[in-house]
Amino acid sequence: MPPDVVDAATRSRMMAAIKGRDTKPEMTVRRGLHRRGFRFRLHDRALAGRPDLIFPRYRAVIFVHGCFWHGHDCPFFRWPKSRPEFWRGKIGANIERDRAAGTALRAADWRVLTIWECTFRGKTPEQHEAALDDAAAWLSGSSGEAEIRGDNNGAG
């Protein structure tokens, strides 16, 4: 296993600077859905998992997940080579917490959409708009749980 290219203090500072809210993918979703006429609340602590966007009128929530932090099975996710047991535990706990939050929200009669970061990475503005159209169609529809990912751009 190759050593890290930066010292531990620098790596710690770099990791601490990673945002958990108002990320680029989240802002893309927020702006796109607002432009389409949807109004929402943000990060309600009263709801399981603290969803990124809450649409009370539609009884729906949207999570915008980063592929790395939530262990998505896409080309943008790779297990780190350093401290593998730490990362497997951390990312595994995130995945389990996501599952539990989804289950609790569905039990409380909320519809849940997960939009993955890979939906927007390396894509054209037209592909972004298509994904946002899929999210808007899901919000206006009646299906329960869905996800939009970079490789299928379809809520369903």
UniProtKB/TrEMBL annotation:
CDD domains: Vsr
Enzyme Commission code: 3.1.-.-
Keyword Cytoplasm carried by entry: no
Any GO BP: mismatch repair
UniProt keyword annotations, A-Z: DNA damage, DNA repair, Endonuclease, Hydrolase, Nuclease
Listed GO MF terms: endonuclease activity; hydrolase activity
Top-rank taxon: Bacteria
InterPro entries assigned: DNA_mismatch_endonuc_vsr, Restrct_endonuc-II-like
Record carries keyword DNA-binding: no
Pfam families attached to this UniProt entry: Vsr
NCBIfam families for this protein: vsr (TIGR00632)
Family: Belongs to the Vsr family.
Protein name: DNA mismatch endonuclease (Patch repair protein)
